[in-house]
Design goal:
67 residues; two-stranded antiparallel ribbon; 27% helix; 2 helices; alpha+beta
Length: 67
């Protein structure tokens, strides 16, 4: 597996996913609760960017998405 350029399904911003080196991936810097993880898996089918992960962790699940 190689690093992948993705678009966050929540905010539509581009980011690099390093699922093949998860310890180096931006998402590994955000510790989520089980509740956060359940929310994400129920709402989205792909990885989120680190900014969105931080917002969800902070309780900002519902913000207006860009059009």
């Amino acid at each position: 597996m190689t690093n992948t350029n993705k678009y966050c399904p929540r905010c539509k911003k581009g980011f690099e996913c390093k699922a093949n080196s998860i310890s180096e991936c931006q998402c590994s810097t955000v510790t989520l609760t089980e509740e956060n993880r359940a929310f994400i898996s129920n709402k989205f089918e792909d990885c989120l960017c680190v900014e969105c992960l931080k917002e969800i962790k902070a309780g900002k699940e519902n913000f207006k998405l860009p059009r």
